Fold these 4 entries.
Entry 1:
Amino acid sequence: MPNQSDLTDALRRELTSSRGA
C-alpha cells in the first residue's frame, strides 16, 4: 500500500489544480 502522505499529496495536488492556485 502507498504511503498515506503520498496519497494526501496527490489529493492536495488535485485540489490545488482545481483551484488554480
Entry 2:
Amino acid sequence: MADPATTAHASLHELEIALHHIFASKCLAIAGFCILIYDHLLTFPQEVELVWKQQRSWVSILFVLNRYITPLVLMVDIYDKGGLANFLPQSFCVNWYFAESAWNLVAFGLIHALVALRVRCNCFQASM
C-alpha cells in the first residue's frame, strides 16, 4: 500500500505540471495570434494590389474568408479559453465549441483548396 503523503506529493506534482502546460498553451496561443496579425499587417499592401484591386473570383473570395474569419475565431477562442470570460453562459460555450470546430474544418479545406490551386497554377503555368 502506498504512503498517503507520497501519493499526495505525486498528485500535487502532476497538478503543477498540468497547470504549467495550460499556462504555456495560453502563451503560445497569444504569441501565435500576434504573429498572425503582424503577418497580416506586413502583407496588407500586397493584398490590396493582388486581391482587392482585381476582379472578384471565387479564389479571391476563399482567400478573404480564410484571411479575415480565422483571426476573429482566434480572438473569441483566446478570450474564451484564455481565462478572461468567467461569465459566459454554458449554452454559449457549447455553441461556440461546435461553431469553432466547424470553422476549423472549413478553414482546413479552404487552405488546402488554395494550395492545390497554387500547385496547379505552377505546374500548368495557368493564370488564376
Entry 3:
Amino acid sequence: MHVVVDNPIDAFFIKAKEIAVMLHIKKSFTLVEVIVSAVILALTFGGLLAAFSGARAYVARAERRLVAANAARAWLNGLYVQVRQDTWDLPANLLQTTTSPGNLTDPFNRNYTQTYERNATLEAGREYRSIDMHTGFPS
C-alpha cells in the first residue's frame, strides 16, 4: 500500500503505522509489565510511608523533650524569687531544701520526673551557689 501525501508529518505517521503492522507491534501492555509497574509503585509508596513514620517518631520525641525543658524552666523560675541576700541562708528558703519538685503528668498521660541538686555552700573563688535541675522524660 502506497499513499502519496504532501505533508511530511503525515507521511511519517503513515510510514510508522506500516512498519508497526509489518513487525506485529502491539499497542497494549502485557500482564508482566503491569505487575512489574505495580510492584515498583508499591515499593515507592512503602519507602515514602517509612520516611514519614520515622519523622513522626522524631517529632514526638522532640515534643516530649520540649515539655520536659519547659517543666524544668517553670520550676527554676519559681526558685528565682528565693535568690535574695536577706533570705538566702534561712532554712525555709527553697534553695536550702532538698525536696524535689515532684512528678508532672502531661495531657497525654505521660509522666515526667524532676529532681534537683543544690550546692548550699559557696565554692572557692565563686560568689554564687549552683543548682542542677534534672527532668526525666518518657522515651
Entry 4:
Amino acid sequence: MKPEHPEQSISAPGKVEPGKIQPEKLEPEKLEPEKTADGSYTFFSSQFNEAFHSRQGARLEAEQKFVGPAQLAKLAAGTTVCLIDVCYGLGYNTAAALDT
C-alpha cells in the first residue's frame, strides 16, 4: 500500500531523502532532582517546565492516586496480590503498594 502523500513520509533517522519529512533530532534532557514537601524526590524538566510529581510529594501522590483508588489494602486482606511494574517511572507507586 502506497502512502497517500508520499512527499510527507518519514525517512529513517540519519538518512536524508529529498521530499521526506526529517524526524526531529532528540537531545538527552537534563533532569534536575527536586525534593518535595513530603521529603520524597522527583525530577524537574526545564524543557517542559514541569516536575514528574506533585510538589506536595511524590510519595503522597502515589498513595492518593494509585494505592487508594486501586484499593490495594482491601485487595491484600487475606490473599496474595500480584503487581506488575513496567518500570516506567521512579518507582513510587510500587514502593507505596509494597508498604500497603
